[in-house]
Amino acid sequence: MHESLFHGVPRSKIPWYPTINYEKCLSCGKCVNYCKHDVYGVEEKQGKRMPLRNADTCIVYCDGCDDICPSGAISHPSKLETGKIISKLSPQKSSYFDYYISRSHLFSLLFLSLQFFQ
Ligand code: SF4
Ligand code: SF4
Fold first, then answer.
1. Digit-coded pLDDT (tens) for 36-49
2. Which residues pair with 40 in a beta bridge?
3. What domains appear along the chain, each with residue ranges and CATH number?
4. DSSP label at 16?
5. Using a 6 Å cutoff on CB, does residue 35 contact ligand 2?
6. Prediction pTM value
């Protein structure tokens, strides 16, 4: 079976996946029910149902489960840093990093224009 690509980069080379802080995790299962991409499974550990992670099925740049975790136990890497990695590895010219940078410039220009006209 062929590995999926994101902007021409094999998914396994992109370090985008949720990290679970098990010290904060309440074993509520919300992340397991929320994610529709089979990223989470459940394992019994010391009588608690703990979420498990299947990193490669997490959708690149989705971080929806970070917000639904009631204890803030889930986090994702920086989108900007991930964009840099994808940009370096991608055979395609246009990347999320380019988009991110151009959008930041646009906001900076808008901000400067507003300052000028005050
Ligand atoms: S939503 Fe958060 S607290 Fe609940 S099981 Fe998932 S990681 Fe643990
Ligand atoms: S970020 Fe999105 S795709 Fe990835 S585990 Fe969370 S809900 Fe699923």
1. 998 998 888 777 77
2. 53
3. 17-76 (3.30.70.20), 78-118 (no CATH)
4. -
5. yes
6. 0.76
